[in-house]
Amino acid sequence: MKLTETDSWMPVITTLDIMEGKETVTVISLDDEGDWVALGDTEPCDDDLDAFSVEELLAIDPSLCDVPDLNPGQCAVRTQKGAPWVVED
Fold it and tell me: CB–CB of 17/48 below 8 Å?
């Protein structure tokens, strides 16, 4: 499934730093339940995580439209914004 094929209102678990543009998404995953998680290089604690819509996340970082097709349980990583995504199991 591609992030852009997900309903725009679906939640993505991410951090406020990403949503405020202080950090870039470098890891995005589709968990086994079909939920999206978008994180940066900083290891967040549980208090840092929140749910935002796919639409909100794509508005902050349109480069996430390039995330490749992921199956549940897979993630895609990149070194920086604009770098190519690599799918990992």
Answer: yes
